[in-house]
Amino acid sequence: MKNLPDPQGNMKNLLKRLTQHTAQASVNGSSLVTEEAVRWAYRLFLDREPENAAAVAEKLRYTDFAAMRHDFFTSPECAAKLPLAARNASLRGDEPPRTIECDGPPEQLARLFAHVNASWQQLGETDPYYSVLTNPKYLGLPSGEIIDTFFRSGHDEVRRFLLTLERNGLAIDQGATCLEYGCGLGRVTQALAPHFSRTLAVDISSAHLALAERHAREAEAGNIEWRHLESVAALDDLPAVDVVYSIIVLQHNPPPVIDRIIAAFARILKPGGLAYFQVPTYRSDYEFRLAEYLRDQVGRNGMEMHAFPQARVFQRFAENNATPVSVVEDGYTGWRPGERSNTFIFKRA
Predict the structure, then answer these.
(1) Cα 330 vs. chain centroid, distance in angstroms?
(2) Which of the two ends of the chain, N or C, has the fewest CB atoms closer than 10 A to its terminal CB?
(3) Which tens digit of pLDDT belongs to each residue from 206-261?
């Protein structure tokens, strides 16, 4: 009998080759994104060779393998080659409702915020780079080369942000101001700042901010104002800006705190201003009850993952005369079945 093709076996072999190559590159101390890695990515994700040398060279701009894998995997060409089941969205539409309490009295919101603040202060003091990007290479105190890679990855995020604006017919006006919420170590801030006349970088962890300022001075990055957000009430003091930016931040806050932050985003937008942010909006295994959380979780330090109802996002911006321009599913939480993360753009009238 003639042997039939085994696409699953071929996929496993490709994965093995690519994993071996990237592991060896890591051992050798070289960048994961080499010409050979790019060529294997084409074979694995697109089932073909690169069209030309220029296409390979263009992919060498990626600062790490995860960024390159994300863009290959989410490309229309890759999606068209995947089995139908793999192409389905993370949600089918028949998922049950989940209880997520988003309101609470001021004193309880203050307790929630202080709890998150304490957790991230500790993370900033003990594992600052890994707390921002949970990749094992960022654990502890990475080498100078790894730290450079860490900051170069911020340029990939800003590139995605600018392309998203362009796809939706939007642009940043000359002289525009930006607020980045959850700036961490300034990984994205340094890449954002050149596009704005003023960038306000806000974070709840003074430990992260101190290190962010040091890195910015070393990089001679200008037009950045760093601000420590000490309490949930301090959200009321944020200034009006043209652009709000926040990625992989909101998910680490309990829903009532996310609600206050998103309401602040909508409120501080100037007329015509844009809010670009990401937050998980559904998890089939997640519910949040404020009384239970206050009783069982507050005081336990650590990185948490939460979800926030999509409808509540729309409500908060509608209250401030802002409408959605774009809502896309993103891979910031891993594309797991039964879970959805969205990147939003809202524009204020």
Answers:
(1) 9
(2) N
(3) 999 999 999 999 999 989 999 999 999 999 999 999 999 999 999 999 999 999 99
The residues, ordered by sequence, that sit 6+ positions from 267 with a Cβ below 8 Å of its Cβ are 320
Say which DSSP state 140 is in. S
- The 3-state DSSP class for residue 329 equals strand
- Distance in angstroms (rounded) separating the CA atoms of residues 170 and 187: 24
The residues that bridge with 342 in the sheet, in sequence order, are 279, 329
Confidence of residue 335 (pLDDT cuts 50, 70, 90): confident
pTM: 0.79
- Find the length of the chain: 349
| Tens digits of residue pLDDT in 29-81 | 445 688 999 999 999 989 999 999 998 988 888 877 878 887 888 788 887 77
pLDDT of 131-182, one tens digit each? Answer: 999 999 999 999 999 999 999 999 999 999 999 999 999 999 999 999 999 9
**Residue among 140, 223, 164, 216 at smallest CA distance from 185:** 216
Place of tokens 């601000």: 227
CA distance 239 to 223: 16
Q: d(Cα 221, Cα 224) in Å, to the nearest integer?
A: 7
Give me the residues paired with residue 338 across strands.
none
Which H or E run contains 178? strand 177-181
Long-range contacts of 152-156 (CB under 8 A, 24+ apart): 152/63, 153/63, 153/64, 153/67, 153/187, 154/186, 154/187, 154/188, 154/189, 154/190, 154/191, 154/192, 155/63, 155/191, 156/62, 156/63, 156/67
Among 329, 337, 344, 326, smallest CA distance to 92 is for 337
Quote the CA–CA distance of 116 and 304 in Å, as a whole number. Answer: 9
Per the CB < 8 A criterion, the answer to whether 250 and 277 are in contact is: yes
